[in-house]
Amino acid sequence: MSGEKLANVPEVGSQIRNARQQRALTIQQLSVLSGVSSSAISKIENGKASASFDTLISLSHALAISFEALFGKPQAPSTALRAITREADLARFSTDQYDYEVHAQELANKKMIPLVMEITNRVFDSGTKWSAHPGEEFIYIVSGELNFHTEMYTPTRLKAGESVYIDSGMPHAFVSISDDNAKIVSVCLDGAAKSTEAFVIARTKTTSA
Hints:
The chain has helices at residues 9-22, 27-34, 38-45, 53-63, 193-208; strands spanning 91-94, 98-102, 112-119, 135-143, 145-150, 156-159, 163-167, 172-176, 182-190.
């Protein structure tokens, strides 16, 4: 995955712009709704910057669309009971700390977001970006070893076959410490999607009134 940095940035940016324009929102209004700065949204929409998982989650909530819709994948009705992901179906995006593969995109209205992540980050210092998003998260180490950092606990060393389950609203970060980058499966329970969607719909109606 590490060789595919920013592969999906233009596509994701276009999806965000299209969703924003369909809702007649300015970049500034989307910034207020999402908590993401106007300059960051502009750069993401124009393919000039990558977006973290947290940022994409915040934008999808503010736009009242699913996380998977940001990758432009057709989604099955919410009554569908399974999703099979082939290699060709994967959506990939990267930040300067992690490479992501998004699974089960075609299934609409999921409560969980399944990701496979390669931890390219090798240091933990003042420049390390914390991750924090409403909900819960199960993390399973597939290969390699890493240090798992949180804002509330001392760092924990985890190796292949081990796991951790967290309140994902707690700031956390991963640092690979094995020779090869650690690879993990992260399953996130999106704790804010429905409440945020209701807020956005109400806010949009108020704004257009």
